[in-house]
DNA sequence: CGGGCCATTGACATCCATCAAAGCGTGTGG
DNA sequence: CCACACGCTTTGATGGATGTCAATGGCCCG
């Protein structure tokens, strides 16, 4: 791993006392199970902007939950061409598309200075014996990841450039809102190039799309800061092409 | 469910005696665990061509393994536009991108008269208590599904029409070969339109791509039957655009 | 202050979706 | 068993969306 700083969990770092607990772990646990959960996360790690949390093909030992900051996952093929698979922030799980003994199938890079909790994979089976819901919880998380990608594939197949950008902005807005941030005022951590790669476009096309939205009075843009003036219009952009 | 015929499992239908056992279930089980596995699959179901195995938004109760035949999964959005997500044949798992209580996130249709084994979701947790490897096995299957979709997303993002078609043919070839069929002689169960939707293209573009491959001496085509004359050339098609 | 990455805009080329038409294959009903 | 109808496949012509190449200016960080 590329990380410099590792913090052993002190008592104040228990999962059960973490502000993300309800988003991160299964619900309806009893006291004993809570204690087991606290044993699950052994470390937190800080990752500087631009550094990788894990790399494609490296050994898969752990799953991660983002505490603070922002990550992108990237998959590379043998020709060196990259594709951004997704963006991850507070309370998102990372490193799920990977299997023990087969290594990570993508790399994860920090887009800002970030911090993650580490869940050693081997502990999951161990602790799941005593916690009934944990296995189902993990299956649910895996399923969600698949469902998310299904949705992306649907979008990329049939929707054109401006529609994809609109989808991206609305998703981002919704995700920020879920986390208690503004629904209209977005500070992007990712570059135009990252967005473009994620959406299967070029960075010029992303810029042009955003410029068009500005001209139409749908958003305001100041470099990485984007204000959504009219959510409904963004919805219309998506559907207008999909007729 | 849309299926007409349901067969209760007779003794000769035990998982442990099934020709697909090694592909379908975890390895290294002892005798008792084998018995438990046999209790996992309660039914087989035949699905006629064109019929659905499950439908988007319908309740999720079971996972499926294809015994014979061919399926496609399709996701629809509110505008009625569809997208083919994947194709599934012998020993493939189906219905994994779905979670208990949240319903299936896509529909599955039989492309030929087919037969599947049904694994009731609730039994999984129950039996997993006694079989150590089953949970890990399922997580592995889920991870593979995610990895597969990651790969698709990579392809769809950066590769052009002919390259996508080449990837599709090579995948199909490899999957058939894994199952003991010819690597060069493919009998497609899906229409050009299905392939097009899966690859994010139109059916005309798929046809044109195949015609180009014929002209270049890479494949032979007779309607749904395709013979791959030169695998290496297909590889070159992919890379030539990706430079 | 300077260098390098990022963002924006324009001109142009190209790939592919769209529209159209015709041939072919398959399944069904008379 | 044949005929017909419908859907699937193929091919052509055309226009539009978006990738590519290029140039400029801005921002951030060292």
Would you tell me the overall average pLDDT of chain A?
87
Strand order of the largest sheet of chain A: 1-2-9-4-7
- Estimated share of beta-strand residues of chain A: 15-25%
Instruction: Spell out the helices and strands of chain A N to C.
Output: EHHEEEEEEEEHHHEHHEEH
- Characterize the overall form of chain A: globular
Oligomeric state: homodimer
User: What's the alpha carbon Rg of chain A, rounded to whole Å?
Assistant: 19 Å
Identify the CATH homologous superfamily of the largest domain in chain A: Jelly Rolls
Task: Please outline the helices and strands.
The structure is a homodimer of 243-residue chains.
Chain A: E1 5-8, H1 21-24, H2 31-40, E2 43-47, E3 52-54, E4 62-68, E5 70-76, E6 82-89, E7 93-94, E8 107-110, E9 114-120, H3 121-128, H4 132-158, H5 161-178, E10 185-187, H6 192-199, H7 203-215, E11 219-222, E12 225-228, H8 231-241
Antiparallel strand pairs in A: 1-2, 2-9, 3-8, 4-7, 4-9, 5-6, 5-8, 10-12, 11-12
Helix pairs in contact in A: 3-4, 5-8, 6-7
The first copy, chain A, binds a DNA duplex (30 and 30 nucleotides) through residues 160-161, 191-193, 201-205, 207-208, 210-211, 223.
Explain how this protein is built:
Two copies of one chain form a homodimer. With 243 residues, chain A is an alpha+beta fold. Chain A contains eight helices and twelve strands. Chain A has two domains: 134 residues, Jelly Rolls (Sandwich), CATH 2.60.120; 85 residues, Winged helix-like DNA-binding domain superfamily/Winged helix DNA-binding domain (Arc Repressor Mutant, subunit A), CATH 1.10.10. In chain A, 41% of the residues lie in helices and 24% in strands. A five-stranded antiparallel beta sheet of chain A has the order 1-2-9-4-7. Chain A is globular. The relative contact order of chain A is 0.13. Chains A and B meet through helix 4 of A and helix 4 of B. Chain A binds a DNA duplex (30 and 30 nucleotides) through helix 7.
